Amino acid sequence: MNAINMKIIYFCFLISLGQFTNGQFTDTFSVMDIRELVRFGRETMIDILESWELIRPKDPNEDVNFPFVYKMEKEIQNRISRVSSKIDIFQEKMETRFDMVVAKLLTELPLQEQLDQKLRTIDQYVGQINDLYNNFLIYVKAQIKYEKYTLEDFATTCVSSRSGALPDLLKSIHRLLVPTNDKLFSKSVLMLLSNQMRDASSQICSEQQSLQQLLYNLYSTITLTEIKGYSMIHFSYMLLRLYNPGSNFSTEIDLVKQQYSTRTLETVRAVKTAMAFAPRDLWKCDARVQKLDETYTQMTKLFQGYIVNEVDLNKRSSCRENCAYYAYAKVEGCYKNQFCSQQQQCNGKVLNCEFVDSDMWICPSPSNSSRRYEHIEYENGRVFGQKSTCTTGTTKVDSWWRWLFWHCSYCFCYCDDNTTKSDRYFSLRSVTSDVANNKIITGIALKKVNQIIHIQIQEGELMPRGYINETTIAWKPIDAFHILDKNVKSNIDYHTLAWERRALDLDDLVPAQDHLLTGIKFRTIGSHLNLEIMATPFNFTTGKLIQPIEKSFWMSNDDTTRTELKLEQPDIPIRYSTPSLPDSGKDQYLNFAPSDRVYDAAQNTIPFIDIQPIVPNPPVPIAGAGIFHKGRRASGGFVALKLITYDFNSHLQVDLPPAQPIINTPIILNEIKSV
């Protein structure tokens, strides 16, 4: 192949992919870029068509002018380098490759067999097109000269109507995304995925993206593949036109243009529909390795199983009642320094006592432990807790009779002991982003500082069209304080959990569509701890929060007719490798409570608290937040926060305005030759 033809091919390639050089793509590629992606494809199509006549002199038999070719050679090679770099960057900004998305979907969704097969087929088609595209880049960018036969054979493959050729691959992908028969729309891969995601949303948590974002990633990789294929087809027709003087291929190009436009519009409509159903919740799976105060924390010495003799539960030191009589009491003494003198006394409330058996062996916990007992073994064979080798040595504890009439029984009760070693506080102070500097909440976490549970936020500057300025993202320091600090007041700065005030409301809070999350806090409604968020209106196009700050408002769920989420036989959640799953619903609440006495001797307060940060990657605007419970059968589970990402569906426009031409003044070869 001669040098002139190679330079013409370079020139065609630059024009066919020229839109990559317009510099309009920003640093982050995420769900809000769908309009740019569609516009990019349309502009690529328009620019190629506008440049269609540039490679053809007026006389089909006339050769291309050598001075023009050599004059453009250096600039063309530089532009090709920039173009290939743009393509690489564009794909990198999509954060994840198609095969990674498919792998994630196939491993985490309980997919139907039909959907599984379709996803794998699309993966195969996308791989074939990417292989063609890699060859395409090699042919137009390599310094070595390829034979005419090689390039012509490649071009013929790209425009062939046979099964398995490039046009057929593009049509096949589209048929899987958007079936031609309207009645079969429910079988679209996009809709099947959306439905499966909705059903399986409670099981997907390891991604740093909401399922709506994950669905969009699938769509965006396919759309970019369509653009690559469209560019290759045009390149191939240009090459064949060059090798076959007198050939026009105008009818073929018109058909390609029509098919591309139709597929683009139909695909955008399909993804718009699918995204409307896709969940936007973002939450964290259980950590693979649980570490106290790194992945989870807990309320310590809040509610705990406690062995006490009824003689110590009344001021008369009598044994005239039974254990069940003491549903609400306190320790009044230590009769004759019996077992009561060998354990830490409960100085708070003693609750819900019950007789289990008269005599027992107790394995006390080490002095540095937050537990009182490792296990309790009753003479009747019942065991509370995990029986194992007792490093501290077991203690025999026996009930006794008084005057043959009264049985002084040892009771199993619950202790609500508000001591300095008890972590039972929640901060009620609000946490807000820097709205004055256009910052919104981009991440969230629960943290325990000075025995108090705080909400910590990550904030970042909002940019036009939903982008986040990543250079501004930072965690806001916690407003740490001690409950004994001067000017710190109970029920104003903090809430204290107690048996009568141990309820936590479970809610998802989402404001109107044109608002974003800029603040969050706990508050109390009666005896319940309740989540509240601050929402701020914003302009999507300009990316500006609506000022003044008075435009923002706090919102919550004030419903007091809630149902309790009851946990059956709740053991401590870190004992099991089986992952916890969300199990709370709308208008529910849970009570912090002792762990199960059979599994754990009721020595811990459940649920535990998940303190893993919830941060979307790439960063996106957050619409709302929630607090929920995740657990399993026989597990106390975890209380955890969630984020609800902004719904971009309303901004997905199908009919986009025509693109501006890249080449404002077309370069006509005949004009160049006259210079």
Structure description:
The protein has twelve helices and 31 strands. With 675 residues, it is of the alpha+beta class. Strands 1, 2, 14, 19, 20, 21, 22, 23, 24, 25, 26, 29, 30 and 31 form a 14-stranded mixed beta sheet that branches. Strands 13, 15, 16, 17 and 18 form a five-stranded mixed beta sheet that branches. It is elongated and about 120 Å long.
Describe what is shown at a glance:
This protein is α+β, with helices and mostly antiparallel strands and 675 residues long. Helices cover 30% and strands 23% of the residues.
Q: How confident overall, as mean pLDDT?
A: 81
Distance linking N and C termini = 27 Å
Q: How many beta-strand runs?
A: 31
Over all CA atoms, what is the radius of gyration? Answer: 34 Å
Q: List the uncertain runs.
A: 1-32, 50-58, 64-87, 93-97, 655-675
Helical proportion, percent range: 25-40%
**Largest sheet properties:** 14 strands, mixed
- Approximately what portion of the residues adopt beta-strand conformation? 15-25%
The SS-based structural class is alpha+beta
Report the total helices.
12
Shape: elongated
